[in-house]
Amino acid sequence: MHTPNLSRRSLLGLSAGASAIALAGCGTAGPGAGGGGGDTATFWALSGQPNEGIYGDAVEAFNAEGEGTVEITFFQNDAYKQKIRTAIGAGEAPTIIYGWGGGGLRTYAEESQVDDLTGWLGENAAFRDRFVESVWGAATVDEKVYAVPLGSTQPIILFHNTKVLEDIGGAAPATWDELLDVVEKAKSAGVAPISLAGQSRWTSMMWLEYLLDRVGGPEVFARIAAGEPDAWLDPAVITMGERVQELLEAKAFADGFESMAADSNTDQALLWSDKAALMLHGGWTFGSMKASGGDFVQSGRLGFSAFPTIEGGKGELSNLVGNPCNYLSISSSATDEAKEVAKTYFLDGYMTEDVTKAIVESGAVPVVTGQDDALAASEDAEYLQWVYTSLQDAPAFTQSWDQALQPTVAETLLVTIEQLFLGQVTPEQFAETMNGTAA
């Protein structure tokens, strides 16, 4: 991944990360206990660059303005997820809760553990309007908003190798039939049609997310995520599974995809080494392909496009799935004073021009409007502008299923997805299993 040329030092982020290691070994909620006091708001976030430096610098700049104090502590991903659940359940969460929206946020909202921000956002319409409209869905529970968007957007993208497609006489597919045509041409030419790290399971889930959208429209999964009875039994779910079977029968995925893991970047390597035609993956892989793929990105061999439409389907070509962004909520257990500092930080500190500039320099697309000039000036302008335009034009942006669903349902989902892609369950069995779990 790119590392931004930050305008201010990252020492704060490094020292906060060190304090997080110490806190992880103790039994208290650390600086988040009580949610902050006086004019101080506590904030836990994830360690790792470039975001640790970006958000650490943002807090440092805000604190220098004298509008209140934010104390930020960084944790590694897995440690944070465990610690934040414990702290929220004990009423000892930090003032500002970092999260992913979706199912986890719904749980917090239903338990009254995070504040409803709907009215406050209504009073600060100019702030709300700074953000791209499509990212608010994952922050909303039963038409009430419980979080504000943070950082960059990471939609799932159909990447392709332009050289391979040219060599086999194919093109980036815009329809399902065109996708199947690429599959046949690639097989005939002796290259993998589609690179997929199936062992990781969530990578296979990306195919289901888009297939269900293109077949039934975004409303089908919206009903599933809302917990409507028998939502998994929608006919579009069955058709989705049948399209997976069609790909398996056509041997569309790279040989041995079942044992390939995303963490090793083997799937990306097949694409950048000209051994695969297509790869459906998160936008975050752009940076790793640029860093590790030799001249793959710089030479123009990396292409990108929307997921194809399906004849007779309801989903639009411009609909997106993936991770709209990260989100920040306010703990209900925090003091009124700490909550006011958090809101002031939201308004004046956390997504400033300096922050959005650093996000662009890191090779990502901020979820705020007005980024056209900054993206156009980037060395990755073509890709970043395409992502940004796709984000703005998307009629729907469906959150990744394993984030949108409740954690226990999400785990069953990943297991059942693996079985579907191994041919161990039928589309009907997949739907029935998920419907029973959701019930």
UniProtKB/TrEMBL annotation:
Keyword set includes Signal: yes
Pfam families, alphabetized: SBP_bac_1
SUPFAM superfamilies: Periplasmic binding protein-like II
Alphabetical list of Gene3D superfamilies matching this protein: Periplasmic binding protein-like II
Signal peptide: 1-24
Residue ranges of coiled coil: none
InterPro entries per record: Bact_solute-bd_prot1, SBP, TAT_signal
Keywords, ordered alphabetically: Signal
Name recorded for this polypeptide: Sugar ABC transporter substrate-binding protein
Organism field: Brachybacterium phenoliresistens
